[in-house]
């Protein structure tokens, strides 16, 4: 199994999200929780700017058998599918330490 890092960026300011977009985001969080329960999501979180605490981006660390499987995990995310979030994916190569 390989590890893949997905970076999620908002496609518009969260303050401008309408109720339907907020529901899409809720579906995104539910999807991540489902993938964690299934074992393919190893870790997820938010990156914030230290000076202001403002959100920079979200991320998810997936474990998958192949690049195609990892891309599918990202593309099936409701936030990405509905274009509320932009997903960018990279394969991680171990350098030091233990993967979560």
Q: How would you describe this protein?
A:
- The protein has 100 residues and is of the alpha+beta class.
- The protein has one domain (2-92): Dimeric alpha+beta barrel (Alpha-Beta Plaits), CATH 3.30.70.
- 33% of the residues lie in helices and 35% in strands.
- A 4-stranded antiparallel beta sheet has the order 2-3-1-4.
Give the name of the CATH superfamily: Dimeric alpha+beta barrel
Q: Structurally, how many domains make up the residues?
A: 1
**SS-derived structural category:** alpha+beta
Helix content: 25-40%
- The beta-strand count equals 4
Strand order of the largest sheet: 2-3-1-4
Q: In CATH's first tier, which class applies?
A: Alpha Beta
Radius of gyration (CA) equals: 14 Å
Instruction: Indicate the CATH topology.
Output: Alpha-Beta Plaits
Proportion of β residues? 35-45%
The coarse silhouette is globular
Under the CATH scheme, the architecture is 2-Layer Sandwich
Quaternary state reads single chain
What number is the mean pLDDT?
Answer: 92
Tally of individual helices: 3
Distance between the termini: 13 Å
Task: List unreliable stretches of 5+ residues.
Answer: none
Helix and strand element order? EHEEHHE
